[in-house]
Each structure stands twice: as C-alpha cells, then as structure tokens.
Protein 1
Amino acid sequence: MSLSTLSLGFAPVAALFLVAGWATNGRTLNRAAVVVLLAEALVLTLFAALWFGSLGHGGWFLVFLLLGALVAGADRGLRFALLRSAGGEELRRFGLGVVKYLVAGALLAWRLG
C-alpha cells in the first residue's frame, strides 16, 4: 500500500478522532491530547492497512467493532476502577468509543479497501 493511500486513509480518521476528542473532553484539547489522538489514528490506520492489504475486505465491521470494544472498554474500565466515576456516564462514553472505531473502520474501508 502506498504512502499516499495511507495518507488518504489517515486524514479523515485523524479528523474524526480529533473531533470526537474535542466533543467528549468539554470542547478543549491540549497539545498532549492531540498527540495521543493522532497517534491512535495512525496506529488504527496502519492496522487497517494490514487488514485490507493482506486479508481483504471481509469481516471489517466485526474486526473494528471488537477493536473498538477492546480499546473503549479498557479505557473506561480503568477510569471506573481508578476514579470510581459514575457508571451511566462511563457506559455512554464506552458506546461512543465503540461507535468512533466503527466509523473509523468504515472510513478506512472506503479509503483503503
């Protein structure tokens, strides 16, 4: 897969992650948060390039659903365990995290697939 193809896949996913981070963090993002979100988008793009480049298009929905549940679940579960935050709010954020990965998977399937 060429670097231009990867860039075309990374750009909308990075924008999605930045907008989602901005919307869920009280409409503010510091420099460190931006770097983390961009790194997350890059890793997801590289993972998608590996998936679509070697294994094809089949099952992308399930792969990104499970990946989103894994990432969002670990993040929210850790926050709940360490901070003892409200369960309902964490459940909503978990759902939004999974949806973010599904939308990113759809964008990457469109751009890389």
Note: The chain has four helices and no strands.
Protein 2
Amino acid sequence: MQPSIIAALNLVCEKQPDRPALTGANYSLSYRDLQNAIADISRALLFMPGKTLGLAVDNSPLWAAIDLAGLSSEKVIIPLPFFFSGEQIAHSLRDAGITHILTDQPDLYQTILASSGIKTAAVLMHTFCGQEISEIRLSDIAEKNLPAGTVKVTYTSGTTGHPKGVCLSASALYSVAQSLLAATRGQPTDQHVSVLPLSTLLENLAGVYVPLLAGATCHLLPQAAVGLSGSSGFNVSLMLATLIEHQASTTILTPQLLHAMVAAIEAGHPAPGRLRFIAIGGATVSERLLLRAQALHLPVFEGYGLSECASVVSLNTEDDHCMGSVGKPLPHTRLKFSDDGEILVSGATLLGYTGGEPVPEFWPTGDIGHLDEKGFLHLTGRKKNIFITSFGRNVSPEWVERELTLHPAIGQAAVFGEARPWNVAVIVPRAHATEDAVNQAIAEANHVLPDYAQVKCWLAAKMPFLPQNGQLTANGRIKREAILAEYQTAIEQLYC
C-alpha cells in the first residue's frame, strides 16, 4: 500500500486515541472520535451519487472530517469557498461536474443555484459529528472525466470570473504534508489555530493534515469567531484573542493579516505568547513588515507555493532562515529555471486541470526568481506582469513596488510603464503620511533602482486596494488590471 494521509493518520490514532484532535465552537473530537467519524462519513458518501462532492461548510471539525472521509472513500472532494461569487460557484459546479453539495448554509446555496439556473433534484439531511448538514443533489450537472487518481480539486481564486480547477492526487498531498511536518518540526504538543478558510488549500493541507500527522490539536473555529467576515471584513482584536485563548503554537496568515497583527501589537494589544511558527503565504511580504514582526519577537516564516504544486514549494524554517527569501525548496521538490528566469517545479504537481490540458514534468509557475549561493529561493516578480518601456527595458513591477513599500510612508503601490519612457505609481499612503513624505520615500527607492525602473511620477489612490473594491485578491495580491482600469485616465494625464 502506498503511503497516504489516511494511513499515516490511522497510525497516530492508534498511538494516542484519547488525545484531542479537532476542536470547534461547540464540540471537540479525540483521535478515536475522528477515526470513527471518518469511517461513518465514508460509509454515507458511498451512497451519494456521482464521483464528486462539493464541500461548502464553515471552518469546523466537521469540515475536516468530511474532507478526510473523502480521502478514505476515494470520493473527489471539491472545497467551495464562501468568498467566491455566485458566478464563480456556478462555474465550479459545472466545470468539475459536481453532482451534490454538502453545506451548512443551504439557504445561501439554494439562492446561488436558483440565480444560476441550476436545478435541485433533492435536499437530504444528515447528522455527522452531532452536527446537522444538508446534502443538495443537483439534477442537471453533467459528470466530468477528471484525471485518473484525482482525490481533490482546488479552485484558484485567480483574477477572472472563471477560476481553474486544479486536480491533485493523494500522493501529492501526502508528499507536501510530510515535507511540511519535518520543516515546521510538528509535534504532539502543538496547538494549531486556523485563521484562513479551510477551503484554501494552504490551510487545508498545512492547517489540518500536518498538525494531525504530528498528533497535535487543530482548533477549527467558524470564520466569524476568528475575526473574519465576508471576503474582506476583519477584526484583528478578535483574532489575537482567539490565538491567546487557545494557546496557539502555530498558525498561518496572509501578509495582510500579519500586518494587522503587527500594528495591533505595536499599539499595545497583548501578543500571543506561545506562538512558535507563524507561516506566511499567499503573496510576497515586505521586508519592513518582517523587520517589525522580528522586533516584536513574532516567529514569522515566509514561504512560497501555488495550487498547481499542491501548495507549498519552499519555506523558511527555524534552522534555515533568510529574510527577503521564500526559504529553501522542500525535500519533495526539484527546481530549475527557464532562460528568462521563470521558476519551474517538479514533484507533487497537479495531475491536470478539470479541462484536461496536458501537464509538463516541470510546472511553469509564472514567477520569476533565482536560488542564491546558499540555496534560498528569491522571487523577483510575475512573468506576465513584466512590462517593457519605450526604451525596450524589461521591468518587473513587483520589484519596484517592494522597494517603495519598504518605506513607512507608503502602504501599497502599483507601478505601470508599458510602452512608456518612464514609470508611474498609484500609491496608497500610510495614515498621516504627507505628500512630502511620499516624495521622499520615492526618492529613496529610486536611489537603489536603475534609471529604467525608477518612478518619475505618482498619484494618490482614492482608497486602499482591497478585495471588496476588486483591487486585491483574497490572499493579498494586487489586481493590476482592475487598478489600471480605475486610474487609467489619471495615469494618462501624468504623461501629458
């Protein structure tokens, strides 16, 4: 038998059946309880029609139990994020051939289905882990032939209305989980508090599989309980209080959430005292923010990954840490670089997309980067975002933006200059930063940039780049096309 998450978890359950495995808002499961719940749910899944199961449940032990039962029963689990729009949900259902959905929010899903013209064949009720849940069977969704060996489909949030379904194998999930278990020194005494949605592959894998394989306890609380609401609402005091209450030793944050945490602690909020590993992913982190976190003695470790590589590719660790890098490649990965510097990854990569496109041995990440002499991976920018000035110079805007946001006067920046003689920036100044302070920050950034990458003019953004205004992804990447569309007229005027 090949190694798998379920086989490894069964060994942990046998060693410590009475230890708490998962805790939620109203109940908890020991490792024995979890093993029994997986068996019970697996039997129920066998009677559900079709190969695919859409999972639309708030963070909870039930979410994890259903997900693990899918691995046990070979049902393809497809997490459906609540931060997706109704259009994106409908696309995912049709794209992956999802024939039934398990959800704790049936009214919301009935509204989405009705507005999308998707018919409901039946609604059944189940009780798993003492929690009632609805099974919505869909009548007009055609089953799809997914790549052989697919056990999970994760949808990338992307920058368009049609996210892509990434098909992953059990062996890929297991390989990444084992690498992370070793890299983070997972141990039975760990208390992991999930802040990100479990529908996010990073939290699903590193926030559930890894702690469970370590024999640790996962605290899976509803999103509202950790301070998250909707796609962008956030209460940092509630998040910090939750981390303190549950004596969190590990957690995973996006750069935005880390920034809020650092700012709150700097302002006097008590810091979680037992954290030993805060993993940061989703987008690049400014070096200034990392230095602020370091000054507060927060154990922050930046990593890098993508859904097509079953989440994490590289990670800074306690033993190997280089600020400004995204760490060393994990043991299961092999890297090489194309002639233009694009990072190519082999090991635990996707089986394919739901659309059936062929997959190369080395996955082209779309990210430009390099390995330094000590083996740390450094990211330069996104290949598709590189623009060419009218003088024929290639500029990675992320490079320039990173230099700009190192300065305390600049909170966010988006740089443009395609086919232009010089570059402009749309800037979100930090609170109380004056125009002169921003000008000085730009001058200091320009001092370390070559002339073709320097920013000659800037304009102040009307509001911060946020998910709710469509200018920031859920994991913290700026949406350049949306920002350009908003400010194009003003940018054009700077060149007049």
Note: The chain has a mean pLDDT of 93.
